[in-house]
Amino acid sequence: MAYWKSAGLTYNRYLAVAARAVRRSLQEGPRLAAERRGQMDLRFAKWENGKQGEVKALGQANQDAMAANSESK
Length: 73
Known about the structure:
Layout: H1 3-6, H2 11-25, H3 28-37, E1 43-44, E2 47-48, E3 51-52, E4 56-57, H4 58-72
Antiparallel strand pairs: 1-4, 2-3
C-alpha cells in the first residue's frame, strides 16, 4: 500500500503537500517564481439535491483542509 494512502491522504492532496515542500526548500529567487506557478485559479462547488453550493477557490479550500488535518493530529 502506498504511504500516502495509509496516511489518509488522497493522491491529489499528497501531490500538493509534496509540491509545497519542494517549493519551500528552494532558494529565495527560484522559490518566489515556483510559488507564483503554484497559484491555483480553479474553483469548485458541491452540489446537493440538485442545487449548487457555495463556489470556493480550490487552493484556499485545500489549504484550509490541510490546516484542519494538521490541527486534528
